[in-house]
């Protein structure tokens, strides 16, 4: 299943447990949308469905100077689907994850550290297939600061603290975080603004049951 956000031609690929999907079988309409997209984000879970589709889109993004992004998604993705993940990584410009996923990523590669800042930096320094865009790593840590590794430097950002009694459901918080981040990235905002929107979106979601939102946002 593809969810398409047309604002600034941003394309999202979400795993919908449909193993029959192969990108090359899509009709011309879907291919035209991919051609128009400037930003492409694919959840790591899609590695369990069609890694060939990911690779095709990743190579297209590199060849056409588009921004390609992925999420580590879950520790088991880093373990069981390491080979497919490894193949896609050189094409990834932004990689998202949480601290558990980041530590698992490091462990399976034999990195002798559990320090999230060090791991984020090492991920950002992995080889790139194209020199057009640098690789940026964004790691969340629950109520601890967000870690961003960019251009050989690490920066941390405080999250919006929430009283325990207001915490309802953390499901969807990571997806909301990425959505908030991308909402600013496609508007060419700086990293600080992207993280600010990401933290806002995650904060809203964890105060509600399920990944739901109020009718109108109050982000400004």
Automatic annotation (TrEMBL):
It comes from Zea mays. The keyword Nucleotide-binding applies. This is Adenosine kinase. Signal peptide: none annotated. Belongs to the carbohydrate kinase PfkB family. Keywords: ATP-binding, Kinase, Magnesium, Nucleotide-binding, Purine salvage, Transferase. GO terms for biological process: AMP salvage; purine ribonucleoside salvage. It holds the Pfam family PfkB. ATP dependent phosphorylation of adenosine and other related nucleoside analogs to monophosphate derivatives. Its EC number is 2.7.1.20. InterPro entries: Adenokinase (IPR001805), Carboh/pur_kinase_PfkB_CS (IPR002173), PfkB_dom (IPR011611), Ribokinase-like (IPR029056). It catalyses: adenosine + ATP = AMP + ADP + H(+). PROSITE patterns: PFKB_KINASES_2. Its cofactor is Mg(2+). Residues 29-214 form the Carbohydrate kinase PfkB domain. The active site is at 175 (proton acceptor). One of its GO terms (molecular function) is adenosine kinase activity. SUPFAM superfamilies: Ribokinase-like. The keyword Cell wall biogenesis/degradation does not apply. Pathway: Purine metabolism; AMP biosynthesis via salvage pathway; AMP from adenosine: step 1/1.
């Amino acid at each position: 299943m593809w969810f398409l956000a047309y604002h600034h031609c941003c394309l999202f690929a979400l795993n919908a447990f449909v193993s029959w999907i192969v990108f090359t079988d899509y009709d011309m309409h879907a291919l035209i949308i991919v051609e128009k997209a400037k930003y492409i984000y694919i959840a790591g879970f899609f590695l369990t469905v069609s890694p060939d589709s990911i690779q095709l889109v990743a190579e297209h993004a590199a060849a056409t100077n588009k921004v390609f992004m992925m999420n580590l998604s879950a520790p088991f993705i880093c373990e069981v689907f390491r080979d497919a993940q490894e193949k896609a990584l050189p094409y990834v410009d932004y990689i998202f994850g949480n601290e558990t996923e980041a530590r698992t990523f490091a462990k399976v590669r034999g990195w002798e550290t559990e320090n999230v800042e060090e791991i984020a930096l090492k991920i950002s320094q992995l080889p790139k297939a194209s020199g057009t865009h640098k690789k940026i790593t964004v790691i969340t840590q629950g109520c601890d600061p967000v870690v961003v590794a960019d251009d050989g430097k690490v920066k941390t950002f405080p999250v919006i603290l929430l009283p325990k009694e207001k915490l309802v459901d953390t499901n969807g918080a990571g997806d909301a975080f990425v959505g908030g981040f991308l909402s600013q990235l496609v508007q060419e905002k700086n990293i600080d603004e992207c993280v600010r929107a990401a933290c806002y979106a995650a904060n809203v979601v964890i105060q509600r049951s399920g990944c739901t939102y109020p009718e109108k946002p109050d982000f400004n």
